Amino acid sequence: FEGADAAARFGLELVAAWQATEARTMARSQLPHIPLRVGCHFGECMPLQDGEDWVGRAINLAKRVEGAAASDSLYVTEGVLELLDIPLYAIKDAGAHTLKGDHLPQRNLYRVGSLDKDALERRPREELTAEGWFLRGAALCGTERENTEEEGVCYREALKLRIDYPEAHNNLAAVLRAQGRQGEAAEHYREALRLRPA
Questions:
Q1: Do residues 123 and 157 lie in contact, with contact meaning Cβ atoms separated by under 8 Å?
Q2: Beta-carbon contacts of residue 64 (< 8 Å; ≥ 6 apart)
Q3: 1-15, 48-62, 67-81, 178-192: segment of lowest average pLDDT
Q4: Mutual angle of helices 149-161 and 166-178, in 10-degree steps
Q5: Plot region of 37 (φ>0 → left; ψ -120 to 50 → alpha; else → beta)
Q6: Global confidence as pTM
Q7: Cβ–Cβ under 8 Å, residues 151 and 174
Q8: Residue 4: left if φ>0, alpha if ψ -120 to 50, beta else—which one?
Q9: In this prediction, what percent of the chain has a pLDDT beyond 90?
Q10: More confident site: 77 or 4
Q11: Which residues are paired to 54 by β-bridges?
Q12: What is the four-CA torsion angle of 12, 17, 20, 21, rounded to 10 degrees?
């Protein structure tokens, strides 16, 4: 992820989707609860030659943060917390943890509980960054406003601020495709692929 808010948003959506899917599956099969833990840490990484896979200490550390996380939760390091738009999230201190392979003896971790979508929507337009516009649009996914012109406007505004934003191109393409605007959708899908071939 290029930004902490996008990473946190993805982690929260992943946990929510897992919980919803598991609830439906458990109701039918009586299987025991299988927890999902998500860890997030930003730091130096580099892609391998094919560009698909990445290596670096930050990835290893994120795995350790995941291991420390409570069941069905997203934990982040202090570095990620500092990059988040904090008023938008419900955040709890998860205490100091010793993480295997970390150069620090202990690291403070934080549980990110939810994104306040209403607070995001109330933000004045002129205060929003490209990522803020993207998140505003993504917040409409899964609601009755998904694939509406309102969602499309959010991705267009994100692209006005940052034309090389592959996720915004991709999501705008999905909106346009759902609206039956196949040609425009194809242009944005192609641009997303050009910007991020992997």
A1: no
A2: 39, 99, 100, 101, 102
A3: 48-62
A4: 160
A5: beta
A6: 0.70
A7: no
A8: alpha
A9: 45
A10: 77
A11: 47
A12: -150
Do you know the residue count of the chain? 198
Give the Cβ contact number of residue 198 at 10 Å. Answer: 9
Residue-wise DSSP of the chain: --SHHHHHHHHHHHHHHHHHHHHHHHHHH-PPP---EEEE-----EE-TTSS-EESHHHHHHHHHHHHSPTTEEEEEHHHHHHS-GGGEEEEEEEEE--TT-SSS-EEEEEEEEE-HHHHHHS-GGG--HHHHHHHHHTTTTSTTTTSHHHHHHHHHHHHH-TT-HHHHHHHHHHHHHTT-HHHHHHHHHHHHHH---
Q: Pairing state of beta strands 54-55 and 46-47?
A: antiparallel
**Nearest-angstrom CA–CA distance, 152 and 138:** 10
Amino acid of residue 156? R
